């Protein structure tokens, strides 16, 4: 009965979230039995075939890394492509075959020789980051993708080799892994958005976006690289976010798009609200692995603000018109907190009450930075479209790991302010080795030792005028080496 209730509620939720508008890409997951299937792929697998799914030039060393080698999988252990991983976590899910491949690779599964309706997928993660997703499409067959190539493997046994386990303890693993484990490494992708301004003749300037890749070895050697647009990690690989401006019937319209990084084609385009009677500008307030928070600003022909609205969307369906509700991401408790916060701000602003909406709009919220953490902020909109007035309020609940994997400060905020009084924001590595401090005009990299910031910064990066952080994604140890290669 309990299982039946869960299934009914899940289907109801899917129906509610889909609304009345068609959605191009549907959810791939479905409810499964509580049986633990995380280790259904345990054992030894031989990679004997591959298929290139994108028109990219494949380097031989990429193929040689996997082809004609073994994958060995145990409860907390993974050996693949010459790399050894300890303390691995596995997670099982059942997916719709067509939706899964369209969402992740934009490919028809029949092109890979897959004709079944459902697949079993096991993701292997380390420190919250997905290493590989293994797709079991037959009792003794699995596949996985890497750098635009799908590899196929056949099962050769139920147990891993003892000598492979010994590789890790004896430090006889490949050169690449030895190199990255010599010292503690941390890296962070910082996404930045510049503030838009209005010129003397009334024109609105565009916001500019860029990504900094900051990496450190053993709290000392710090390197900073930069790319235009926002480069961010997902389970399916690295993606890119950008904003482009079109002119529609003489009005300016900004479109936020995301696409797989390194390829010319756009995977999804966000282009709703193409208003023929207003200029439409969009600010990206926040982006993570799976979500994006936008602010949509409409101006009339005189560039007077008509509306200014928040919306949060899933990156897997960025084209959908309706935004998510906070309950969709954080659950019922967050909805209760949002309702209380909304009522509180209305009651404390009685002089504005007659001009503001009195019913909570659950979709009207965003994600911002506050004292070294990501936080939710809601918006009360005006009752009349003629009013430019709106009112923001804090939603006093912390974002969960569903929204952002890591959001902790290893150094207390008061200590950060003691070291740098002009600090407006701060980020610290999960490795507890470096800290990123943000002032109005610069970004500083400090080392951390015994919970204290170094006397002087290791690196200083000049920020553009009124530039703000919209993303922070950390990589540790061997991931730093891999992310660095991708970013280059």
UniProtKB/TrEMBL annotation:
Keywords: Lipoprotein. It comes from the Bacteria. This is Putative lipoprotein.
